[in-house]
TrEMBL record:
Keywords: Repeat. Pfam families: WD40_RLD. PROSITE patterns: RCC1_2, RCC1_3. The keyword Transport does not apply. This is RCC1-like domain-containing protein. It comes from Rhizophagus irregularis. Residues 111-341 form the RCC1-like domain. InterPro entries: RCC1-like_dom, RCC1/BLIP-II, Reg_chr_condens, Ub_ligase/GEF_domain.
Length: 347
């Protein structure tokens, strides 16, 4: 049996629809009220969950089509695999057959079936990965035809085989089946991980730092990035304002980090832990370690770090979220909206 816990910004009741407080600072169980066992999408004001047993989707928070806050409302999940959208709401979805849809109609015919899709947090640019390992880009507003994105690895050769993609405000990371990471878009805060600050990188370029390490998971925040290697190491890079990278001890420490930094849990008393999952919000990061515990860092103003009402300050290093609510349970997955956090637990 899976449970969902949530915490963070709740002004639209998008974090805990059963609670009217604007800030939820400690993890709270929303499983019963939402009737969900997973969260599949969240933005600044709304959330989409799923009941995998009954194949029902549940939406709650601010409904921009009705211009009001709504309680969890269900509709059939059908064959939906993944949703994509931005701060304005859900813009489309990918079904299990590899087709992309937007607002009830098929929007783009790609040369091959789609296996993953992500949208920039702001703007209408969408990145898709097809089953033949190619990257495609299109814009939802101008109805342009999908354009193939050419990528280069560190030697300049072509044709890496991509498997998934993630997006931040205006940058993207893509992962290949060989565990290689590519990045492109805005790099002004170092969020591309190439060791330099650049206004824009047009083509997906292999992050040389990770050559030979083999990456298994990637995540994008607004202006920062996170990567987990096969060995369980977590690296972060990009804008460190509010401590969202978890690499520094205070406000006077490094603000921007253009090269990936290895995370040491426990600060100077480094604890040997392998990281299973990572998720990034606008200015915070959460990670699940192999003891199924949660760690968080970054901006904590709205309780999105899960540390309690007396700890809404910023955390510049990863801190363990030690909640009595789930001490005897296993945290197996995590997802962040801009200013909130959702956890999936096994009893």
């Amino acid at each position: 049996m899976r449970q969902i816990y949530s915490f963070g910004y709740n002004s639209f009741q998008q974090t805990n629809p059963a609670n009217n407080d604007d800030i939820i600072s400690v993890p709270s169980d929303i499983t019963g009220f939402t009737q969900c066992d997973d969260i599949i999408w969240a933005n600044i004001s709304s959330t989409l969950g799923i009941n995998n047993i009954e194949r029902k989707l549940m939406f709650w928070g601010f409904d921009d089509t009705r211009n009001k806050i709504i309680s969890p409302t269900h509709f059939p999940a059908q064959n939906i695999m993944k949703y994509f959208g931005d701060d304005n709401g859900i813009q489309g979805y990918l079904d299990i057959n590899g087709n992309l849809y937007g607002h009830s109609k098929k929007i783009f015919n790609l040369p091959a079936k789609c296996v993953d899709v992500a949208q920039m947090w702001t703007g209408s640019n969408v990145i898709a990965v097809t089953m033949d390992g190619k990257l495609w880009q299109f814009n939802l507003k101008n109805n342009e035809k999908p354009k193939k994105i050419t990528a280069f690895d560190e030697s300049g050769s072509l044709n890496p085989f991509f498997t998934n993609v993630v997006c931040g405000e205006n940058h993207s990371l893509a992962l290949t089946r060989d565990g290689e990471v590519f990045s492109w878009g805005s790099g002004r805060f170092g969020q591309l991980g190439h060791g330099e600050f650049t206004n824009s990188l047009e083509k997906p370029t292999s992050i040389e730092f990770f050559q030979g390490l083999r990456v298994k998971e990637i995540a994008c925040g607004g202006f920062h990035s996170a990567v987990i290697t096969d060995s369980g190491d977590l690296y972060t890079f990009g804008w460190n304002h509010f401590g969202r990278l978890g690499i520094s001890s205070g406000k006077d420490s490094m603000v921007n980090c253009a090269e990936p930094s290895l995370i040491e849990f426990g600060g100077e008393n480094d604890i040997e832990l392998n990281v299973l999952k990572v998720a990034c919000g606008s200015a915070h990061t959460v990670a699940i370690t192999d003891d199924y515990r949660l760690w968080s860092c970054g901006w904590g103003k709205y309780g999105q770090l899960g540390l309690g009402a007396d700890r809404l300050n910023d955390n510049y290093l990863f801190v363990q979220v030690d909640s009595t609510e789930f001490r005897d349970k296993q945290i197996v997955d995590c997802l962040c909206g801009r200013w909130n956090t959702f956890l999936i637990l096994n009893k």
